[in-house]
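tool=predict chain=A
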Amino acid sequence: MDRRTFLRAGALLVAHAAWLASFRQALADPASRARFRHGVASGEPGTESVLLWTRVTPEAPRPIPVDWVLGDTPACDPPLAGGRVLADPERDYCVKVEVGGLAPGRTYYYRFRCGRVNSETGRTRTLPLGSVEALRFALLSCSNYPFGYFNAYRAVAAEPDLAFALHLGDFIYEYGPDGYGAEVARALGRIHDPAHECLSLADYRRRYAQYKADPDARLFHAAQPLLPFWDDHESANDAWRGGAENHQPGEGDWAARRAAAVRAFHEWQPVRDPAPGVDPLARWRRFRFGDLADLVALETRYTGRSRQVDYADHLDVLRGRADRDRFLREVLWAPGRTLLG
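tool=predict ok
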């Protein structure tokens, strides 16, 4: 390691330690815990912009003014940008701010303020521009709250030099108290809220609120920008364009349930809202990391996926090679089956 690299790594560790100290100080403040129960997050960075997120816990059902500030030190002093937005009941008091005019490949810090109460400080980063020698990021998926603690989230937050965290989906699970992981949930005291399967907008909002209130989840979200994408459990197990394995008769209209799940996702995640007239299901994204890499994210769950093949439906009729070949030709490899649409 040459001297310049050594000094840069040392400065990074010092800055990371200062940020962790400021985060823990805010997290220990009872007022902050009560007002900003679900922490802060950033996501979908560009070379000159990043999106900031928080949620304010309301004291009464009315819009709440929220101030925000961004700087290049954990103290956000001097501030480089700031402003005021409203936490609206229509969006479940979730707040998003897109900050522009930033420098490429830079680390920034931000926080929110409601009245006299500050949130914890988040750390974020813009995408690099031009020549990039290396790219280091975290890859996560399948975060089932009842099935165990979010130790992996805490481990990711401890890394000082991640460019971003990519979450491939199943950020929440929709099951009720007897669903996947129920036995472990009872042993650990991590039982799903609400205590029934998520079907409505209110259900999905409460489920996100439970997951994001977890201390390790708060630390993870505040530590680096997030690129979050959905899979099936953000709505229901084995979802496809016309339904889901875990959407049963008597659970209402699938399109309405899916719309509620997608709306809650857009409210509770640090992602840009769909533009007017754009299908909210069409979450296709591209992120460029200088001249080194492009990340292209495809929507493969709701808009193009055919219904999954359940092999149990066909085992009784597979009597020989001819039946097998017919199954492969007409079912598994049927020309009309799609994943991307």
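The radius of gyration is 22 Å. The first strand starts at residue 40 and ends at 43.
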